[in-house]
Amino acid sequence: MTDLDVKQLQRRLAEFASARDWQQYHTPKNLVSALSVEAAELVEIFQWLTPEQSASVMDDPESAHRVTDEVADVLAYLLQLCEVLGIDALAALAGKIERNEQRFPVGSAEPKIPRRHSAE
Amino acid sequence: MTDLDVKQLQRRLAEFASARDWQQYHTPKNLVSALSVEAAELVEIFQWLTPEQSASVMDDPESAHRVTDEVADVLAYLLQLCEVLGIDALAALAGKIERNEQRFPVGSAEPKIPRRHSAE
Amino acid sequence: MTDLDVKQLQRRLAEFASARDWQQYHTPKNLVSALSVEAAELVEIFQWLTPEQSASVMDDPESAHRVTDEVADVLAYLLQLCEVLGIDALAALAGKIERNEQRFPVGSAEPKIPRRHSAE
Amino acid sequence: MTDLDVKQLQRRLAEFASARDWQQYHTPKNLVSALSVEAAELVEIFQWLTPEQSASVMDDPESAHRVTDEVADVLAYLLQLCEVLGIDALAALAGKIERNEQRFPVGSAEPKIPRRHSAE
């Protein structure tokens, strides 16, 4: 598969909106809001689950579909935001990982409760 | 560029966390929370901006960097969530676009205030 | 009306949860998550509305009810979080306003895009 | 203490904004966004904490102050939103609790994972 899939997906998203005359709604402010709403819908799925229940959320077809669906929604708005703002999302992440590899060298003392961790 | 970039990025994210012994924090619940926090940080950049100011946020190097940085953070947690849950994010979005093309056929009456639009 | 209403509401919320054996879910982490989910549901109501449409959201009985309902949900989780953590929400806000009156004296130069404003 | 504290707080919040000419920013859309951003800042405090660490977050003066501060910020935006929209927040919650007491009678079968619970 090619990274053209990201570009292809962005193109399909743009065509989808354009064909329905919906780009008028796709201002950066509205897109970041929509993204945050979808992110909250992802949180909602896990909200009352115990860690054990969370770990097996993909074992049940219904919850697996809900999670996958919300992941798609978050990605949709993220890619549309990037399209509108001219941001290359994958390049942005690659650059961030590199910066973090500098900021958080392996073997340095790790904060007990890292304010952020993972590649951030 | 290839879609291997998504897989490469996921691998680098996993290696980054692993090398710092941070995967212990990367439960699905924590990852969706972290994703929602980053999405809110994106919202925050635009919060008090007018539509005009929002439209030119990428013209200023400092705000452009902030936006790109938060986009990277959102994508980082989304991809790590997908890794942990075994979800193919691009395939999920492609499937969602197809379902939405069925649900919202062009030419049907559009709701005045669409509850959701774009590929959702 | 008395500020006892806040205490009364907290008591009724606690009794409601207790009678249904739901306090087990009301850990601080779960409560802050739930609060953020309800806040996003509030955002969602306004998401695609223009400023004009937003301004008249309380004129339509259906959207007025939705907004009021989500305000109630946000307040419910905020008060329950405060109950669980032993925080006096009104006192916290009063203290914050005072600190902000010091931090943002009237007549000093205001940032063009205040990072935060209002009593924050 | 009287419920006038809520009204007093709303008045002080309005005066604070007015004195700095900040009401221009306080559209309903901006206020719900700001509220969601503050709610995310609350989530962020707890994000990587274990349940045990979360339970003792108020024992450490620094984290206790952070939590109290964000609670104040969430409440500030909620009350300002209610002021702008003409919503009585405490009455809204009281009404919601009553409706929920009908919707979720004690003794009926509780869903194992309630989609919502507490007074919602």
TrEMBL record, chains A, B, C, D:
Gene3D superfamilies given in the database record: MazG-like (1.10.287.1080)
CDD domains found in the cross-reference section: NTP-PPase_RS21-C6_like (cd11537)
The organism of origin for this protein: Streptomyces luteolus
Alphabetized PANTHER family for the sequence: DCTP PYROPHOSPHATASE 1 (PTHR46523)
InterPro entries tied to this protein: dCTP_Pyrophosphatase, DCTPP
Protein name: Nucleotide pyrophosphohydrolase
